[in-house]
Amino acid sequence: MSDYPQTQLYIDGVWHDGSKERLSIVNPASDEIIGTVANAGRDDLNEALAAASAGFNIWREISGFERSKVLRNAAQLLRDRVEKIARILTLEQGKPLAESRAETLGAADTIDWFAEEARRAYGRVVPARSPNVRQIVIKEPIGPVAAFSPWNFPLNQAVRKVSAGLAAGCSVILKGPEETPASCAELVRAFVDAGLPAGVLNLVYGVPADISNHLIAHPIIRKISFTGSTPVGKQLAALAGTHMKRVTMELGGHAPAIVFDDADVDLAVRILAGAKFRNAGQVCVAPTRFLIQEKVYAKFLDGFVRAAEAIKVGNGLDAGVTMGPLANGRRIGAMEALTVDAVSRGGRIATGGERIGNRGNFYKPTVLTDVPLEARVLNEEPFGPIAVVSPFSTYEAAIEEANRLPYGLAAYAYTTSAKTSTALGRDIQSGMVSVNHHGLALPELPFGGIKDSGYGSEGGTEAMDSYFNPKLVTESV
Ligand code: NAD
């Protein structure tokens, strides 16, 4: 308990408490209260808004070349501090230490990539229709950003928004995750220690709806970026629309994973099991609907169940543990309800299907079969360690099921046919399609969904562009 830090707000270059009563932090592996986080009131938010406004005026004038140096310093500090940060992350979120280390080092890579982009935010010269006219498109930072990031990846959801915004020359007010605040605060500390001027990056925690209602509506804020559930995303997008604010929404998913008869089944089992149970399934791009062509169904199911049963569930700090607890008690309730519903409709539990013990939020890696399409688990994002495995006969049937839901974030497929692979890239309705490997979420790649999974991108040059206004300057000389 003693090595878990008390988390404060960071506003206008100062770490301090909020005006409201601090909130408790629970270790999801033990149910123990391990610390508290500061809770922002209206005055704190107004202070953050004023700081972000002043910070923007400073930061936008600093060249991309210099901004890049600060960002790269921050990346190096994260690497230097990886052991400390990873331990904090596991204590508050539950994931195994190896995943926490990977998340911290991945955050450093993300910062580095956007640092490079800061130096390459070129505009365009558009050839004119008249010889004496010059038309220039300049990329200007959009302004102060309100960024809302969740508890499943306390560093990596926040770092995408913060790095892209800062690289572009924006200031940021980050609302970090109240349930896992200290690792996110360490991310902010790295930027602060790297030399970011006061006011450019501000960190708040509190009552999410109070904060988002105040920040999104406020005229100082010019851009909103939110990662979280689809229902909340829709509310925030509606509010942003009322105030004509630019929005990036990274919301829920219900990824299909299609394995064809001609696939390398062992490869599919290994990679898909890793993708399903990483972070105990609390990943927006986690595969959930496993669609397996009839000839390889039995082989895939057998291998996947064995892979699920080989997972060692426990405290993320313990050696050898490959899946930690769910991050909060709400997820246990959700897993139990989805499993009971599926079984009541004829679904069968191939493995798992129940909580482990009554201390901490541990749930068995679960594989369900024979689940009818009306079951909740085949329509709602489980956001936990449940996989539903179903057979299919034809390519068309698999595509129809893959595209059935209003979600469209990630999709996976395994096939050795180049023709099938190309067709999948065309036919699957989702923001990301990964064939024969798990190829998502690198900083240089666009990351985002379509339909109810949101819009905009959290990676690649597409992410940077969402923090710029393109300004046309046309001059006749
Ligand atoms: P939730 O919908 O209450 O919260 C999801 C996230 O949104 C949290 O980080 C929360 O702090 C934030 N939030 C909630 N209301 C908000 C508001 N009015 N303004 C600003 N932020 C707000 O649910 P939850 O129990 O925390 O998570 C459950 C569901 O959320 C999951 O089933 C999953 O679908 C979704 N989720 C998605 C991601 C993702 O990576 N896309 C991450 C976390 C949660």
Short description:
The protein is an alpha/beta fold and 477 residues long. 39% of the residues lie in helices and 21% in strands. The protein has helices at residues 42-59, 64-80, 82-93, 97-118, 156-168, 181-193, 208-217, 230-242, 265-277, 294-309, 329-344, 395-402, 418-427, 460-465, and strands at 9-11, 14-16, 20-26, 33-39, 124-126, 133-141, 145-148, 172-175, 201-204, 223-227, 246-250, 255-259, 287-293, 348-351, 366-369, 386-392, 410-414, 432-435, 454-455, 468-476.
CATH H-level superfamily of the largest domain: Aldehyde Dehydrogenase, Chain A, domain 1
Q: What small ligands are held by the chains?
A: nicotinamide-adenine-dinucleotide
- Structural class per helix/strand content? alpha/beta
Distance between the termini: 69 Å
* CATH class type of the largest domain: Alpha Beta
CATH topology of the largest domain: Aldehyde Dehydrogenase, Chain A, domain 1
Overall number of domains: 2
Global mean pLDDT: 98
Shape: globular
Per CATH, the architecture of the largest domain is 3-Layer(aba) Sandwich
